[in-house]
Structures
1.
Amino acid sequence: MSRPVRVRFAPSPTGPLHIGGVRTALYNYLFAKKNGGKFLLRIEDTDQKRYVDKAEEYILESLEWLGLTPDESVVNPGDFGPYRQSDRKSIYQEYVQKLIDSGNAYYAFDTPDELEEMRHQAMEQGIHSQKYDASVRHKMRNSLTLTAQEVNELIQKGENVTVRMKVPTDELVSFKDIVRGQVKFDTSELDDKVILKADGLPTYHLANVVDDRLMQISHVIRGEEWLSSTAHHVLLYRFFGWEDEIAQFAHLPLIMKPSGKGKLSKRDGAKFGFPVFPLEWEDTKEKETYIGFRESGFLPAGLINFLSLLGWNPGEDQEIFSLEQLSEIFSLEKINKSGAQFNYDKAKWFNQQYIIAANPQDIYDIIGPDLARVSNNKTEAYIIEVIRMLQPRVHTLTEFKEQSTFFWSAPSEFDEKAIKKKFRIDNKEDFSNIISLVDSLVSFDTESLSSAIKGHINDNQLKFGHILPALRIWMTGSMAGPDLFEMMALLGQQETVQRLTSGLNYAVKFTNNE
Ligand code: GLU
């Protein structure tokens, strides 16, 4: 009974892709790869009012950056196109007609005012938010209440011509969801949804079901917010007589705010200072720029690993998984039912693991040009060496720049608190001796520096804690930075001697003035 696995990610280009959407795309991708199937991208742009320019490009670029390249899409069409719903208008009209002919849908001509009046009347009878359903459809202006001639005239006139699905009364719509088990809806809870709008374009429900069928989608994997719509979708499948090949549904848990209370929103990102979009997005209407994970210094692999576990549990302790590994072990059965709490520190932890494991050259390929610009003409080899030293110390790519300033030029100031704590004027002579020693070294590499300086400390019965921290402050300006001897070796003899000398002078003056 198994049919080829074909899944789709079906975003609407109404703005940037939210991180929840990225996770939906990822789970679809993984499920397709795991089962040797196909991963499609379908652009659901039938709501012209909510259409946002550049959103489609943004979606494509985001998937490309993450390496979740669709097997079929608008830029890489397969045999089931077009892959943009606005290019499929005529297809939907044909299917809407089928539903009208079979009596499962009807024309409705009600104006916005008439709809408002219907709700108002219901309100007076104590019914809040009255739906357009079996209880009112016989009172409205539609092809169920008007004569054939009136209907034809109104269609000819072309004003407010919509088509609604005719939801049967008192029935149970039931379907199996892979994540939530059996889900049931009473049709009395469902309205007669508009399936074709006055602008001639279908609504999400109709287009989504027709396309899933025509594109031979085997599994519908999407966010939990669509669970309640599924009842209408199942009815549409039934109306079309497609029940035998209905897609299997899997609704993914919501991504919750860091507090665990409520759905994660784009406002939360701005509020708490973390990205909720994969790439930067400039909102021209709101005149606001939202930073993305990419600009925040994330590697795609780090973000993917983080998202993979935000709602899915591999059932083992291992946490680090590459996209390839995930593609081998992913299963819909292991998706959690409850909401997944977003934790930015955890996201950065995953990113850090991938930065540590990366080849410095690969990191250079991403941030090299940016570092080169501030590097005071350092060579590529030098910059790669800086990257290598900082790799274990950063969580994001942006921190390389923040933490590397002393590799490009001598520190412009010293952390005075640190000098106060770590510099002992009693050791002044010892520091001078160490500087002379460093100056006289013939081979200036990490090993020689380490054994010369440590040897001097030991031979003179000094304490490491009295000497090394001060040297570090003079090299970097503060107590921060990677291995002292590696840093010195990279900066070179002349620069090291210069920094130590001016650092010692500064510390002596500073201490005498205290
Ligand atoms: N266009 C819907 C969205 O924007 C797709 C929902 C679905 O996958 O069916 O999320």
2.
Amino acid sequence: MKTNSYDFLVIGSGLAGLTAAMELSKHGHVLVASKVNASECNSFYAQGGIACVVDPEDTIEAHVADTLSTGSGLSDPKIVEQIIQDGYARIAELENLGIEFDQRKLKGKKTVYDLGQEGGHSHRRVLHAGDITGQSMMKVLIKRALENSNITIRENLMAIDLITTDWIGHPGKNRCVGAYFLDKKSDEIFPIHAACTILASGGLGKVYPYTSNPDVATGDGVAMAWRAGLPIRNMEFVQFHPTCLYHPDAKSFLISEAVRGEGAELKDIRGRSFMEDFDARGSLATRDVTARAIDFIMKKHGDPYVYLDISHRSESFLRERFPNLYAACLRYGINMATDPIPIVPAAHYSCGGVVAEVNGTTDLPGFYACGEVASTGLHGANRLASNSLLEALVCGYATATEISNVWEQFKESVSIPDWKCGEAVSSDEAVVVEHNWNEVRTAMWDYVGIVRTERRLARARARIRNLRQEIKQYYGDYLVTSDLLELRNIADVAELIIRSAEQRKESRGLHYMADHPDATENTTDTIIHDKPGGPLT
Ligand code: SIN
């Protein structure tokens, strides 16, 4: 089979991946591999916006201080400063591409950005496009990428495993030379070779049954990088977004934190405000505190949800500021202007990931990581709201810049073996895959959720180990499908989250252990660095 070869391979079509692709297209041909379709990614569903210092009364120092305080001792001050400093230049480039952020007129007719407020920010600093910021940005970026003759976007292409020279027996220092892919339409599996590979595959919310993430977020990138022997950092810090809509017909529907920013209050189902009992910032506390408080109230009273109430704001204000949310809630029979919104916390964002520099560099030459899949040191133990799009944008660009300076050294072509199916046959037991999907996710929700204990983690570890054994066996015996690949990935990521959580015998940021409720003096990262497993063919 002929190997597909490109100068640059980008795995993932979210903000980080497309930002990198646009820059790299100035230097060579880029393939962007998208698992479903280009717009199906976490970036597309981001509602709130991008945190950036644009108000003359705001300062870089204040944004840095808010990020460090939210990161609870694990954010790297130098990295935080670098990413925040670079923010505005990248925003200006997005505007040049045609992306418009909301503005408002001051009395003297001067126009300024209409900045949103979110939990943990000491200043209004969130640039937004209504309440569909991610969607507005991604539509423009995808259009620009499709118009670019040096970028090919291939959809329904799922990465299976990275290809390293050590694994294929190519001489010299180990490096990444591409990845194996499953074409979900034709069921064909083939290698794609590239001088440099960028992992920008996004998040892992689907490791949990309740998540704000779309179905594609199965932690594929972290799992592949781990299997290739890369170090993985701080996986215990999974952010649960406090306010996802609770409704039988709503799947993964986020109620943006910007709603709290405009004064919404959290109330129990009897109508009592409760956030002041947990944090002096009340309903605008950071996500870790808020999600835990909601979890506590729900468990204490046995309530299935709590309320987010913004009914004190006028209908005209809500329709203008949150047009998409207002309309969506109405479709579910909830009028935000008169009714409180039933909400529950759900898995939203992975603060940990593949260890990478701001410029995407990892331990493996020729392999780069950026966006949610990477752990740069920005988020530490908890992510400040709307810092994720900022990181994706700044690091996507920095990764492309770094690669453009070094990629010529990786141009040598290598011979990559075809994918071997061995004795694998087509499975007539898809039910096993579906059953194991549910088991992994239920164990993670019950034992590795918002509140953890040593005993719960040990239980989860035992269950996930068994499931991983079973999945490994199944993977060897049957022809791979995207469901099976995703199952393998969520199980691998579950293992990484549990092992990281077990190492942290304290409570910090998003990791709360009921049997170790306080933070210790020890502010070290959790690193898991195992030997490469190599693709299981
Ligand atoms: C939101 O709008 O609440 C989500 C944005 C984010 O995760 O920062």
